[in-house]
Every structure is written in structure tokens, then in C-alpha cells.
Design a protein that fits this description.
Number of helices: 23
Protein name: LrgB-like protein
Main location: membrane
Keywords: Membrane, Transmembrane, Transmembrane helix
Mean pLDDT: 78
Membrane topology: Multi-pass membrane protein
Number of domains: 1
Number of strands: 0
Strand content: under 5%
Subcellular location: Membrane
């Protein structure tokens, strides 16, 4: 991700048409990949079935510590980023312009297209029309029934069934959530919001694939570890290409590695993370600013706090999270999985528990933002009540529209509420929350992506300092 961002940023000065090439050729593909990359987070949740089940007290203490550290990170991130950014912009009153007028978006602040009700003369969408709008979904279920099932029960080949079933469930949950948000029905708005938030695609896909694993293991009389091994072989596409190059150059007689459904999902997730470099390039002016300095500062402070204090809180006498590896997993509680694994190796933490906490935090934040908590925080917290001031401002002429749009864009890039919301989501929900912000076309999305990168990088840096790492491990052990 960082490499793509740096490459395009540097070559953008040499090649004037690079940004136009991105917007015309790459932007739509990047947005499509961003919409479906979260399917990769379902696999770590399913793989939790492979670990040993702890006693009820240990599970309860882990959940309590997870909630406490989540509350601390959320409050600390927002209420530290907000005043720092206020100091950065010297509390300019123009940053508190009422949200009902937004020049950058063009005139009045209208609801997003996906939440806007259609005109009254539009016909009610029927089941047939819904099916025609989702041909890939229908094709995926067709392949599951006509190709996946026969291959599974006739030739004992699990990969096609698991792959088609995973994609079918994922597309179905996304379609249901989109239908709830866009289809007009006689439900109260808060009921619609509640249903849309509860129909989280990562949550229900994870539960459905877990049910599939247990059901198939019971039908085929195979142990659960064997069944999980058919879902993920830990060879995503990048690893497969490297292994293929190594085996061809060494003429090894070892069996060729294969990809399973989980590896394809992880490949999609890794590709989406890399493609975020394009999104960072798109919002480069917002990142290379005072807001970017605020994001990096707060993320670094949170990384140090998590590494030094997270395991200590988990292993304290009040909580007593056991074993030691479980307590050390809180050192990278909300660091994206790709960067959390090196931290777990250095400190000796439980990588499975860490992945579960990262995904769990992402799901909680996705559901919370689906309920509108993020928009409420961004629009209401520290609202100085300048609506009357905005209404009394004179309207500018059309000749000033371009200049006003540029000014408004810069204001939005440095708005303390937007920056604080982005940092809060990035350091707590990692890739899942950032993906949700990009899908919602939120102004806080680039700040969330930058904070996610900064938090993960600084967590790896701090955990790699031998005195600090040794002190954390000894403190937890003692």
C-alpha cells in the first residue's frame, strides 16, 4: 500500500496525465475491490474453531479486557486527535460551517444516492427485478449446486464447494444489506438502520461458514482440524507464486501447493490493502498536511500505549487473563493482521486470539457506523451551533465557485471532527472500518487508512525495541 502511494506520488510529478489515468482506468476497479475485500476477514473467525477452548472464566476476562481496551482506545483517539488538530488549525471558525451547506459536494447537503428514496412513480422492485440486478450472485449459487456439491460428494474434492459457497453467502449478505438500505418500505427509519447494521456481511458470512465446517465434518466423519485444513492451506496467491518460482529453480520433488477457499479470500484481502495505495494517492493533498501530522502523532502514541499497557492491563490482578500468550495478544489489539503477526512472533502472543480481536473490533465498528454513530459523532460532538451564522452568510457569485470549492475541500481535509473520526476508526477497526468508510465515500476514510498504517508500523517498531519488549514480557510473566 505504502509502496503504491509513494510510487504514484513521485511519478505524478513527472507524468502529468497519471491522475487522469487512475480516475479513468483504475478507480472503479479499486472501489469494487474495496467493497469485497472484507471477505478475507471471515477466514480468521472460522479458524478460531481450530484452537483449544478456554474455560469460562478466561473467556469472560478476555472479553472484559477487550471491551475496556476498546473503550480506552476509542476515547483516547478521538479526544486526543481533536484538540491536536484544533491547535494545528488554530481553531479557525470557518471549520465549523454547518453541514447543511457543502460547496464541495455541490449546493445543499443531500442524502447519499444509495439512501435516497426513489420517486413515487417508480414501481416497487420485484423479486425478478432484484434477481436481474444480481446476476453474479445467481451464478455463484448455481455453481455451488451444480458443480460444487457433485465434486464434493462424488470425488471428495472440497475446494470448489467451499469456494462457491463462501462467495455465494458473501454476495447474498451484501445484497440483503443493500436492499434494506435502498428499498422503500413502511418501516421506521431507526428500524431500517437497525436491520442494516445487524445484517453485517462479515458477521453472517463467518457464522455461515463455521456452520458449514461443522456440518460437513459431521456428515463426512472427519475431525475438525482436517476439515479446517480443506478451507485454508495458508498459501495465498503471492505465496503460491513465490513457491512456484522456488520449486522450478531448485527442481524440488515436493508436492505442489494448492489454494483453498480461504486462501482466495485472503488473496482478495491482501489485494485490497495494496490497492488502498491508490486511494491514498487520490487523497494525497489531505494527507500531506497538518491533518496528516496529527494522524501520525496520535497513532504513534496509541501504538506505544498498546504495546506497553495493553498486556499489563490484561495480566493485572483485577483481570488476570491467562495464559501469558493471551495477555500479550493485547499488545497489538487492533493492528491489522498483516502487521500484527510479526508483533506476536516477537512477544510470543496468541496470534489466533489477536486475529479474533482485530476482526471482532472491526465488526463492532462496522455495525456501529451502520447505526450512524460515526455520522453523529462527526456532526454533533463539539458542535458550536453556527447554523445561524451560516444562514446569515452572503451567497457568493458563480465566478467564485471554483475558489470556494478548493477552500471547502481544504477545510474538510483539516476539519478536526473529520480527522478525529478517521483516526478513531483507523486505530480501532483497522482495515474493516476503513473499508466501510471508503465504501460510504466518507471524508474521514484517508485519515483512517493513514492511521491504520501508522499504528501498525509503530507497533512493530516499538515491539522490536529489545528493552521495551523484554520489559513487557517479564512484566506479564511476573
Amino acid at each position: 500500500m505504502a509502496g503504491v502511494f509513494v510510487f504514484f506520488s513521485l511519478f505524478g510529478f513527472v507524468i502529468p496525465g497519471l491522475e487522469d489515468f487512475y480516475r479513468k482506468r483504475l478507480k472503479r476497479a479499486t472501489e469494487l475491490l474495496n467493497r469485497h475485500m472484507s471477505i478475507g476477514f471471515t477466514i480468521p473467525v472460522v479458524m478460531l474453531c481450530h484452537g483449544e477452548v478456554s474455560d469460562a472464566r478466561s473467556i469472560g476476562m478476555i472479553i472484559i479486557c477487550f471491551v475496556l481496551t476498546g473503550m480506552f482506545n476509542t476515547i483516547f483517539a478521538y479526544f486526543l486527535a481533536f484538540p491536536i488538530q484544533c491547535l494545528m488549525i488554530r481553531y479557525d471558525k470557518h471549520f465549523w460551517v454547518d453541514r447543511h451547506t457543502d460547496t464541495e459536494k455541490g449546493g445543499e447537503n443531500k442524502p447519499p444516492a444509495r439512501l435516497r428514496k426513489p420517486d413515487n412513480h417508480d414501481p416497487q422492485p420485484s423479486l425478478r427485478a432484484w434477481a436481474l440486478r444480481h446476476p453474479i450472485l445467481l451464478l455463484s449459487w448455481l455453481l455451488t449446486l451444480t458443480l460444487g456439491l457433485p465434486l464434493r460428494y462424488c470425488s471428495q474434492y472440497d475446494v470448489p464447494l467451499a469456494t462457491f459457497l463462501l462467495s455465494s453467502i458473501w454476495l447474498t449478505t451484501l445484497a440483503i444489506q443493500t436492499t434494506i438500505k435502498t428499498t422503500p418500505h413502511p418501516l421506521h427509519p431507526w428500524v431500517r438502520t437497525l436491520l442494516a447494521g445487524l445484517s453485517n456481511a462479515v458477521l453472517w458470512t463467518s457464522l455461515a461458514m463455521t456452520a458449514y465446517v461443522f456440518t460437513d465434518a459431521a456428515i463426512s466423519h472427519r475431525p475438525l482440524p482436517t476439515m479446517l485444513a480443506t478451507l485454508q492451506t495458508h498459501t495465498p496467491l503471492s505465496t503460491l507464486l513465490l513457491l512456484h518460482h522456488t520449486t522450478t529453480t531448485t527442481d524440488s520433488a515436493a508436492p505442489a501447493p494448492t489454494m483453498a477457499a480461504g486462501d482466495l479470500a485472503i488473496t482478495l484481502l491482501n489485494s485490497g490493502l495494496v490497492a488502498w495505495g491508490f486511494k491514498l494517492y487520490e487523497y494525497r493533498t489531505q494527507l500531506v498536511s497538518r491533518a496528516g501530522l496529527t494522524v501520525c502523532s496520535v497513532s504513534a502514541a496509541l501504538a506505544l500505549g498498546n504495546v506497553a499497557c495493553g498486556p499489563l492491563l490484561a495480566s493485572s490482578a483485577a483481570l488476570g487473563v491467562a495464559p501469558r500468550s493471551a495477555a500479550l495478544a493485547f499488545a497489538a489489539r487492533s493492528v491489522t493482521i498483516a502487521l500484527a503477526n510479526p508483533v506476536m512472533v516477537v512477544l510470543g502472543g496468541d496470534a489466533g486470539l489477536n486475529a479474533a480481536m482485530v476482526v471482532g473490533s472491526g465488526i463492532v465498528y462496522q455495525m456501529g457506523m451502520g447505526f450512524g454513530v460515526g455520522r453523529w459523532l462527526e456532526g454533533r460532538v463539539f458542535d458550536t451551533g453556527t447554523r445561524a451564522q451560516t444562514q446569515t452568510q452572503p451567497r457568493e457569485g458563480h465566478g467564485h465557485s471554483a475558489e470556494m470549492a478548493a477552500v471547502t475541500a481544504q477545510q474538510r481535509a483539516n476539519d478536526p471532527r473529520v480527522v478525529a473520526a478517521g483516526v478513531t476508526v483507523g486505530v480501532n477497526a483497522a482495515a474493516m472500518g476503513t473499508a466501510y468508510l471508503y465504501e460510504a465515500q466518507s471524508d474521514a476514510a484517508p485519515h483512517a487508512a493513514l492511521s491504520m498504517i501508522a499504528l501498525g508500523t509503530m507497533t512493530v517498531v516499538f515491539s522490536s525495541i529489545p528493552p521495551l519488549a523484554r520489559w513487557v514480557v517479564e512484566s506479564v510473566s511476573g
